[in-house]
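Quick start: read one record
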Amino acid sequence: MVFLVVCWVVTIICAVLGFLTVATGIAEAKGAPQQAAAAAMGVAWAVIPYCFTRAVSAIQREVRDRQRTRRCPMCAELIRGEARVCRFCRQELTSDAAPVLSE
């Protein structure tokens, strides 16, 4: 969780750096190719950290969701850990059965 917060802070800082890169690059450029290069660098500063942070967030969410699931003892489908009835085979699950965490 702390790592994700750090990633978002770095993303915000990089977005500000990207904006500054675009602004100064366009202001100091002597032609259209230099302006385009400054705009591309600024967008890269903003987009690459954002994509990385979104990927990390999705991976952490997937891991968290997998830790909250178990397999049905009858049909072996993944179900929520709190489930009382399997949504696939409609088998009633007993609370004394040990949950089998997903892989």
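Residues 32-67 form the longest helix (36 residues).
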